[in-house]
Request: fold
Amino acid sequence: MSDRIRFVFNDRVRALSHVNPTMTVLDYLRTVERSCGTKEGCAEGDCGACTVVLGLLVGDSVKYRAVNSCLLFLPVLDGKQLITVEHLKMADGTLHPVQRALVDCHGSQCGFCTPGFVMSLFALYKSEKHPSPRQINDGLAGNLCRCTGYRPILQAARQMYSYDGGDQFDQKEPATKALLQSIRRNDTLEIHNDGRNYYSPTTVSNLADLRRRYPDSVLLAGGSDIGLWVTKQHRDLDTLIHLGDIPELVQTATTPTHLEIGAAVTYSDASAALASHYPDCGELLRRVGSVQIRNVGTVGGNIATASPIGDSIPPLMALGASVVLRQGDHTREVNLDDFFLGYRSTAIASGEFIENIRIPIHGDQRVFRAYKVSKRWDQDISSVCAAYSLQLDGRRVNDIRICYGGMAATPQRATECERTLIGTDWTREAVNSACSALERDFTPITDFRASSEYRRLVAQNLLLKFYLESTGDVRQTRVASYSGDAA
Reply:
């Protein structure tokens, strides 16, 4: 058992004990380290002013990922490197290429958002040597600027690669790797403070034991939802169990029949694996939050929170995915069709947890598409999310799975619509009839994202769009994004 949080900060190992497990990294930086370059704007992971970068030891190299420090709990730093805007300049005071580019391109005005932009650009600088316009736009989508305008910032993103010499992080990487290796942990981290408890096991069996001992504990994966319970709802969380240090839960695996995604695999890591089999899944996950959110948020967490507008659920349900639930040494597999019992209610029993998600690999046997409709392209919650999986025998519909999010209290299949189509020829007339059947499947609500009438019409139009794409009756059905990509 370990009782200290250890992480690398400014080239030195920090060791902390008896800290509040739900203190955010942002609060720690500003109140303890007095590193006030990192700003608080929204405290909910939307504005990017609090962006910091984590260095993770992956294999034999250090990978850099931008995250929102306003949602990240301090103990999650254990075993990682924390980099803030204060750490970028060279030892002699020379600006980092990212900072120099922003100065040269006049990419800052009031300056409040600038540290967050610097850190997002730094993460891009360290991970992509020749980023495309789409990668630049994606990398900055989680940062908001209210006064400068984005043109000079985008120009800086291109210009930062033009300066010679690299940066000090390349030069220091051997030393950084040695520090990260020195703080690797093989046992459970336990932090106790003022009645609050935090556990971070390193094996599934230890997780199962902890979950059995604390059946009412909060399971923490990425914290993109749970962080809001603290920063916005001011809730006290007595016992947290972190999943992110268990190797089996942060891995993906491919079998001849299934893609298996561990419960703590982030959107960023799951996206490529899903897109290799189902390109629309990758495109849909690209629009889940920002890079900062996707670097911590998990597919397993999205399923477990059972939000009716969880974007990963409709495509997984349409593909026939299931979750493996574990309690102690016992596991059971539950199809997503049967997993959601009601609003924010699931089939997870007391003491159980999601171990992994199993997604069938259909190959070219089925036609699959997924769509997201929201008010904004980036950083927005769906008004309607839809996914379709179709199997044809010639022109006849042998099987079809139709799933929507944002149309009911849970993500839900359109069973009446499916029954209308199965056994018929895949024609425009059949689809028009199925669109009418959707009105028997759903009675959507009106809220600030969309009216019930709008949701109903969008659901019908997306089904028609799927038909047109599946038959090739029209050339262009996707709206081009700001980066020139179809989506």
